[in-house]
Design goal:
The structure is a single chain. The protein is α/β, with parallel strands linked by helices and 602 residues long. β1 and β2 form a beta hairpin. α5 (121-133) crosses α7, α6 (141-169) runs antiparallel to α7 (171-216) and α7 packs parallel to α10. It has 19 helices and ten strands. The chain has two domains: 10-331, ABC transporter type 1, transmembrane domain (ABC transporter transmembrane region fold, Up-down Bundle); 378-400 and 429-601, 3-Layer(aba) Sandwich (Rossmann fold).
Length: 602
């Protein structure tokens, strides 16, 4: 999945970040304006101070006059330096808060963005590129864009003044200094372009390193890590990834090093040329000694500020690439909701689901091919078949996680693409194979709502209906007990089967009209599985339910069974009809029944 990134210009990104600052903290602009003025004025004070001192010393001035003039000048200079330091310290906390705001918004966006973005490898790489831009502290893109802009404007003010001063001596010297600085600027282009090219590789490596680190610290993988001696293997993979990342960083550093050497060489040539020019003028009596001091200082300042300006322009170009990565993640990850969405109230209380000529593929391989079927209101439907038949893909399409390649999915005749995404999500309660239990209280995990919105009676009813109430209520804190030991050593740690029952209680609490159970009993033994499905049948009496299972304990009480193979429906009917048919379903059921009977006999 390749994502197009909108290429915003540097001015556009500057306006974006300054606009973000203005939105949250208008005082930031007061500090920025002060920094721009002070940043441009302070070098000029430093430029004139040596000339003033020499001029006073060579003139017929009393000691007291010299002391007073220099004292006023130096006092003003110190005051401006103090103000500059105060503005820098004053703006820093706000810039840090602004970076944290981006952190929070990016975290929320990662939770909310389209499912197919975060599930794919390309999507994860894209996320890491964006996350990296705000995860480098004071070197993050928010600081780079704002501080770089401030320094560039301040430098331009000082540069224009000093260039005008040197032009009074001879315009040619200004042209020479600028030409040599442009060459230095050109020397920086290659390493920066290489850095830009390497960003994709760098983000991909960081994605893989993060995955390895997460795996090594994942409690769920801890048992396999120990029993199969995986730490050595995983550590080796991590070490190899770090070697590749270091080698890439070394290539980038080496190119910047060569550019820095070239820049330093050009700086020496530039300074020697300028100083020789001034020395020639003073020895020939064209300028006075105080003016010689002034022009020498101006050359040093001019070269420094010209170098700073070129560096800031290069830094802003680099920061602009990062800014585009960040803004792209916020602005282009989600499919847009329809302009005139169908109101969810148009569905009513009875919902009929229709898949009409659906085809879908994750890449070039089609998982579903011209699939059509209907699920009537309150109907219990089982999707069965071998791995890769397309069962879970059907659920992902129905929930709106993916968009169909061809065909349409209808709810009471309304295409699901015409609903707002959040409205569509509200129609489903689901229990998926991947269990999500957060380190919050039992009640918060069941309701997914803040404490003031909890319905204690309903929570207990759902826990009872799911068959997990006794395991929860044996804890002294009951439904106020913390879950998992991630944040609290006294947290409730559930077994695999208990965790699936717990997520069923969550699905029941949501009380959505459509219930999806994707392998909800995979961790249960056959007897417990049968009991759970009987309980499912009771609690879903007035709901439309879709079951996905490799084990067929759920199918006997279902109104309809869809047998899937290679993305197509090969058999359809209830349990009795399909057993009479004697096809794939009957064979699968008999095989599973045989194993259960064998276990009982043994």
């Amino acid at each position: 999945m390749k994502q197009e990134i909108t290429q915003h210009s540097i001015p556009s990104n500057i306006c974006h970040f300054f606009g973000m600052a203005y939105k949250h903290y208008k005082i930031v602009f007061v500090f920025l304006i002060a920094q721009i003025i002070l940043g441009g004025a302070l070098p000029l004070f430093g430029l004139y101070l040596p000339r003033l001192a020499v001029d006073l010393a060579m003139g017929n001035n009393s000691i007291s006059h010299v002391v007073i003039v220099l004292g006023i000048f130096a006092g003003t200079y110190v005051l401006l330096q103090c103000l500059n330091g105060a503005t820098s310290r004053g703006i820093y906390p706000y810039q840090n808060i602004l970076r944290n705001i981006y952190h929070i918004e990016m975290f929320q966006k990662a939770l909310d963005c389209d499912y197919d973005i975060m599930e794919t490898s390309d999507g994860k790489t894209w996320y890491h590129k964006a996350y990296k831009t705000i995860n480098f502290g004071d070197h993050s893109v928010t600081y780079a864009m704002m501080n770089g802009t401030q320094r560039l404007i301040s430098g331009a003010i000082a540069f224009i003044f000093v260039a005008g001063l040197l032009a009074m001596l001879n315009p040619l010297i200004v042209a020479v200094l600028i030409a040599l600085s442009v060459l230095g600027f050109a020397a920086d282009i290659y390493p920066r372009r290489y850095s830009q090219t390497a960003r994709e590789i760098e983000a991909d490596l960081q994605k893989k390193i993060s995955y390895v680190q997460d795996t090594m610290s994942n409690v769920a993988a801890a048992k396999d890590m120990r029993l199969y001696n995986l730490p050595a293997l995983v550590s080796g993979i991590k070490e190899e990834l770090f070697k590749r990342a270091f080698a890439l960083s070394a290539k980038i550093r080496n190119r910047h090093y060569v550019a820095a050497v070239a820049n330093n060489f050009l700086s020496v040539i530039r300074d020697i040329t300028a100083y020789a020019f001034c020395i020639w003028h003073v020895t020939h009596g064209n300028i006075s000694v105080p003016d010689f001091i002034l022009f020498m200082s101006a050359i040093a300042v001019f070269s420094g500020w010209l170098k700073n300006i070129t560096r800031e322009i290069n830094d802003l170009k680099h920061a602009n690439i990062q800014a585009n990565d960040l803004r792209a993640f916020f602005g282009h990850t989600n499919r847009l909701d329809p302009v005139n969405p169908t109101p969810i109230s148009a569905l009513g209380s009875e919902i009929k689901i229709e898949f009409r000529n659906i085809s879908f593929g994750y890449t070039n391989d089609m998982v579903l091919q011209n699939l059509s079927f209907c699920i009537n209101p309150r109907e219990k439907v089982a999707l069965v078949g071998t791995n890769g038949a397309g069962k879970t893909t059907i659920v992902k399409l129905l929930c709106g996680f993916y968009k169909t390649t061809t065909g349409e999915i209808l709810l009471n005749g309304h295409n699901i693409d015409n609903f707002n995404r959040t409205d569509l999500y509200g129609l489903f309660s689901a229990v998926f194979q991947d269990i999500c239990i957060l380190p919050l209280t039992v009640a918060e995990n069941i309701t997914m709502l803040p404490p003031e919105q909890h319905d204690t009676t309903r929570i207990l009813q759902c826990l009872e209906a799911a068959g997990i109430k006794s395991a929860i209520m044996c804890h002294p804190q009951g439904i106020d007990a913390p879950m998992t030991k991630t944040m609290d050593e006294n947290g409730i740690e559930l077994s695999g089967g208990q965790a699936q029952k717990f997520t069923l209680a969550r699905a029941l609490y949501k009380n959505a009209p459509l219930l999806i159970l994707d392998e909800p009993t995979a961790a249960l033994d056959p007897i417990a599985e049968s009991e759970v499905y009987e309980k499912f049948h009771e609690v879903t009496a007035n709901k439309t339910a879709i079951y996905i299972s490799h084990r067929l304990a759920s199918t006997r009480f279902c109104d309809k069974i869809l047998m899937l193979k290679d993305g197509c429906i090969t058999e359809s009917g209830n349990h009795h009809q399909l057993m009479t048919l004697g096809g794939e379903y009957a064979k699968m059921f008999e095989i599973q029944s045989h194993y259960y009977k064998s276990e009982v006999t043994a």
